[in-house]
Amino acid sequence: MSKVTVAKSAGFCFGVDRAVKMVYQELEKNSRVATLGPIIHNQDVVNDMQAKGARMIDSVDELTPDETVVIRSHGVGRDIYSQIEAKGCRVLDATCPFVSRIHKIVSEKSKEGYFILIAGDSSHPEVQGIVGHCDENHLVFKDNFELKDFFEKKYKNLGKKLAIVAQTTYNIVVWDECLNVIPKDDPDIVIFDTICNATDTRQSDAAELAKSSDIMLVVGGRHSSNTVKLFEVCSRYCKTYHIENSGELRSLKLPAAERIGITAGASTPAYIIKEVQTTMAENNLTEIQDEEIDFAQALDESFKKIHTGEKVKGIVVSIDNAEITVDLGTKHTGYVKLEDLTDDPSQKPEDIVKVGDEIELIVIKVNDAEGTAQLSKKKVDEQAGYETVLKAYEEGTVLEGVVQHVVNKGVTLTYLGVRVFIPASQTGLPRGAELDELLKKKVEFKIIEVTEGKKRAVGSIKAVQNARKAEAQAKFWETAEVGQTFVGKVKSLTSFGAFVDLGGIDGMVHISELSWKRIKHPSEVVSIGDTLEVYIKDLNREENRISLGYRKAEDNPWEIFKANYHVGDVVKATIVSITSFGAFAKIIDGVDGLIHISQIADKKVENVKDILSVGDEVDVKIIDIDTEAKRISISMRALLDSEDADEAEEESSDVVYSDEAGIAPAEDAE
Predict the structure, then answer these.
(1) Cβ(143)–Cβ(172) under 8 Å?
(2) What pLDDT is attached to residue 287?
(3) CATH topology of domain 480-551
């Protein structure tokens, strides 16, 4: 028994379905209805509407004042609305919303002084309707050649900004060629992507079904252009029949088939498709054909035709430095030039494909006389890449790519064929940094803006960094405790401390925590990029601040001194400062002792500077250690005269010391 399958996208498109329903709803109200032109390219539907009381007219002049006039999905120009208003008729506007959007765009841009360029067929009712919403400053072009002629001969002297739109059913491949003609990064040109993808989807679905079917039935009006196109698409893969309704099945002499596919044009209502499907399923309309096969004819029929803009599959049969050759399974030899394989100049054909690979391509140009077809893999990649980029923009997905160029105010890279511009402010580099640092480097980025029409996007490395930082911060605060140790890199230095990256979140080591010695700037101890082992001293969750410690207890000079020096020891010390009451001398790094003026010599000293200078190395005896106050008294005199030194100790018992390192107050030191 035959298996009957209907293509998932067969039948009414959104705009046609909406228009048909509006007419039937109006007829149910017993209104007098007139459609301005056939509401749909399907005679069965038109006949049914007329049977229910609808009337089809070709111009507004045919209207009577008591009629409701329906504007079909193609839309009309402003003047038609004015004519209808003058007639006093009620309007039921069934213009497809996607077409109405174009009307709104060209109307607004015309008022703003833009010159309007329209890609499409000037004789098509949709394009005529779009033109009707422009002023005199407009031009309809059919392809990239006419557009190129405009830019070469007219644009420079035009003196106006440009707004570019396309007919909703315009050929996607030709549109891409047009985009290549348009001057890049011209601030006076704005492009709107107004092509509806419903037709392309319907053709793709029909082609896939035809590939797995023995015969195909294409249901739709004889004058429906999109139905005829479906017939051509399906005919490439299997025996295909074009019918308008199920009644025509009886007159067909269908061959025996196990797998039967059904698709339908945008003007074919669901009930007609259902009737065809039911008739095929319930009745044995297929029969075995015993006639003799004409092999010459069969061979000729196997030569599938291909058309510009069509998406095809091919097997790579040869590769050289400039292009690849592809077997399309047709009488044409397919060629893909390097520039149509990739936009990466560093790649060669063998880097992209291998002999035997099956690849998807778009037909750029067909030469039936020579039996050749020019193809593009890049356009397929760009289309798929743009959809991926658009999805990444909507979902906030992190993407990865290699920076290819440094341009004015930013850098660029290409992701799946889509050009992504990353402004300098979004590169994540510090202000004033050289953008060349990113050249040829792999980066992670997010899409923050998509340019309508040009299939370009704006990316941000900084957005990824900020997200990672926020994630790291949240994770840090979940487990952070005072006393925890981390190993991090010094990220920046200030006059008051060093900021250390703990892995996505920064903490600060205050200058006083960098060294046990007095320092004037953190750079005396650490440099940017140094790896430090730090510990958490304090946390402030409200202000998101982390205070870090770096000095280790075992490195405390005072602890080292206590362990190795005692009262009575004789040591060498270096004079580090002189005051009016004595001199401070360094015993070890970070520990100074005071030589009181009375302990300098075995005679009375009027001025310390008469005997000592900063930098002098002297022998001294430790005569007192105040552990609690961290103060040390040392004596030169004790080594000269022990008796006098004992007396001097009593005289110096009331000396006032400064801080824990024994340094004199700044106002007294020299």
Answers:
(1) no
(2) 38
(3) OB fold (Dihydrolipoamide Acetyltransferase, E2P) (2.40.50)
| Rounded CA separation 512/547 (Å) | 12
Give the angle 479-485-486 at the CA atoms, nearest 5°. 90
CATH number of 565-651: 2.40.50.140
Q: What is the pLDDT of residues 68-125, one digit of tens each?
A: 999 988 899 999 999 999 989 999 988 887 788 899 899 999 999 999 999 998 988 8
How far apart (Å, rounded) are the C-alpha atoms in residues 514 and 517?
9
Closest CA to 243 of 266, 211, 271, 272: 272
* Region(s) of the chain under CATH 2.40.50.140: 311-376, 381-465, 480-551, 565-651
**Beta carbons of 389 and 402 less than 8 angstroms apart:** no
126 part of the active site? yes
CA 56, CA 66: separation in Å to the nearest integer? 15
Domain 12-93 indexed as CATH 3.30.1330.30: no
CATH of 381-465, one of 3.20.20.70, 3.20.20.80, 2.60.40.1730, 2.40.50.140: 2.40.50.140
Top-level class of domain 311-376:
mainly beta
Contact 467, 399 (CB under 8 A): no
C-alpha atoms less than 13 angstroms from C-alpha of 208 in its C-beta half-sphere = 11
Q: Bridge partners of 546? A: 539
pLDDT tens profile 596-647? 999 999 889 899 999 999 999 999 999 999 988 889 999 999 998 655 545 5
Backbone phi, psi, residue 209, to 5°: -70, -40
How far apart CA 588 and CA 610 sit, in angstroms, is 25
3-class secondary structure per residue, 40-53: CCCHHHHHHHHHCC
The catalytically annotated residue of 26, 126, 244, 382 is: 126
The CA distance from 186 to 453, in Å, is 14
The dotted CATH code for 97-191 is: 3.40.1010.20
The tokens describing 556, both together, are 């405390």
